[in-house]
Write a structure and sequence with these properties.
By secondary structure, the chain is an alpha/beta fold. The protein has 2 domains: 2-98 and 222-243, Udp-n-acetylmuramoylalanyl-d-glutamate--2,6- Diaminopimelate Ligase, Chain: A, domain 1 (3-Layer(aba) Sandwich); 103-219, 3-Layer(aba) Sandwich (Udp-n-acetylmuramoylalanyl-d-glutamate--2,6- Diaminopimelate Ligase, Chain: A, domain 1). The chain contains 10 helices and 13 strands. Strands 7-8-10-11-12-9 form a 6-stranded mixed β-sheet, with helices on both faces. A 5-stranded mixed β-sheet has the order 2-6-5-4-13, with helices on both faces. The chain has a two-stranded antiparallel sheet with strand order 1-3. Strand 11, helix 8 and strand 12 (212-215) form a beta-alpha-beta unit. The chain is elongated and about 55 Å long. The structure holds zinc ion. The site of zinc ion has 4 residues, from loops.
């Protein structure tokens, strides 16, 4: 068991929350019960995940994508009202960590992706503080081979824009929607850039600069940080923990 305030304080420090400028508040977004024994984690605080947390008797829900994004309508109606009501009525704390959870060197999405995909990180890139990683593949591959490698480990075939060299050795990766770092990967001389999702202009950037572009799934690339963080908290504070994967094809 841990108190809510101890848990939020611990996470604030562990994830260096003050070091990031983000599009949402990082930390306690919805206040629930003061004592936490059962933790549910998941990628996005959607209604099915909240229902699973209610079902499991969760005291806290830990997510990567929470609420209150910059520019969103500042009213509690519709979908947002239903989500908040379910949390509040059931006294469930909502803890959300966005960029700090992409970047963390151990529990972060990009560190966990490196481990899952057996990439060998050599440095960081993308943003300030940097949230992406770059390094080497475990072996030289072609685009098809890398696509199969990723599909097997993420359980989802990536969208591939094959525009780089036939032998791929260097790789830059950043989970989620990180196409804005594509040119930085080009400038670093990477053979391939892997992110979660991209939009149309990125295809032409990749083709005209001659770098492979992989969109491996926003959800699929961001399962592993929150899962690892939940497991870490469970072990450290003797909590019950359930990671719930509410699948998203995007
Ligand atoms: Zn994301």
């Amino acid at each position: 068991m841990i108190t809510r305030d101890e848990l939020t304080g611990y996470l604030h420090e562990l994830l260096d929350v003050d070091g990031f400028q983000d599009g949402c508040p990082n930390g306690l977004q919805v206040e629930g019960t003061g004592e936490i024994r059962c933790l549910v984690s998941g990628v996005t605080a959607n209604l099915p995940l909240i229902e699973a947390a209610v079902e499991l008797g969760a005291d806290a829900l830990l997510v990567h994508h929470g609420y209150f994004w910059k520019g969103e309508e500042p009213v509690v109606v519709g979908m947002k009202q239903r989500r908040l009501k379910r949390l509040l009525v059931n006294d469930i704390n909502l803890l959300a960590y966005h960029l700090p959870l992409d970047a963390h060197p151990v529990h972060g999405n990009n560190a966990r992706l490196a481990s899952l995909l057996e990439f060998l990180p050599e440095g960081t890139f993308g943003g300030s503080p940097a949230i992406g990683l770059w390094g080497r593949l475990p072996a030289t591959m072609d685009a098809r081979g890398l696509s199969d490698w990723i599909a097997e480990r993420l359980g989802r075939a990536p969208l591939v824009i094959p525009a780089g060299p036939s032998r791929i050795e260097t790789v830059a990766w950043c989970s989620g929607a990180a196409q804005s770092y594509l040119v930085e990967a080009v400038q670093m001389g990477m053979d391939v850039f892997i992110t979660g999702e991209v939009s149309e202009p990125a295809v032409h950037v990749a083709r005209e600069y001659g770098i492979h572009l992989f969109a491996a799934g926003h959800h699929a690339t961001e399962r592993y940080g929150v899962m690892a963080l939940g497991e870490h908290l469970a072990e450290r504070f003797a909590l019950q923990h359930h990671f719930i994967d509410i699948d998203s094809p995007l």
